[in-house]
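Data deposition worksheet. Section B asks for the primary sequence of the deposited chain exactly as it was used as input, without tags or linkers unless they were present during the calculation. Section C holds the resulting structure in token form. Section D is free text for depositor observations; keep each observation to a single sentence. Incomplete worksheets are returned to the depositor.
Section A, Depositor: J.P.
Section B:
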Amino acid sequence: MSRVINPDSAGKERNRLTKSIVLAVRELAHQTEPGPESLDLAAFIALALQAISDGIDVSVAAWEKRGYWVKADKFRMEWMWTGDFAEKLKSALHSDDWGTIASLMAQTAQKLGKLQVAERHRLGKPWVGAFQQLKKG
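Section C:
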């Protein structure tokens, strides 16, 4: 029997989410006033950062199983900011604090600044309806 390979690994999901976050930050930077689309963009970024944070342990499980503790800890430290930013962003969205949201967007853009997203990407607009999803969860 052959090995079962999961095409949707945590790393691929993290790459897709980080590229989507970069697109959402760019789109949010073009907004002149906070509106429904701005809420969706900020909520999507919060949800995506939380999903990245939740996938960290899945990503390092294989390294820890093989005894690569230093590599696993380095990876955790590299992505530790995502959970903190997600919580701050969620609380800022619930209190309608756009100053904090803008500050967090700038910090997020700085963290993901090296990431290149092609002009003709196939990511679409994953942030549509994200604010309603955030309010449900």
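Section D:
The CA atoms of residues 23 and 40 lie 13 Å apart.
The mean pLDDT is 87.
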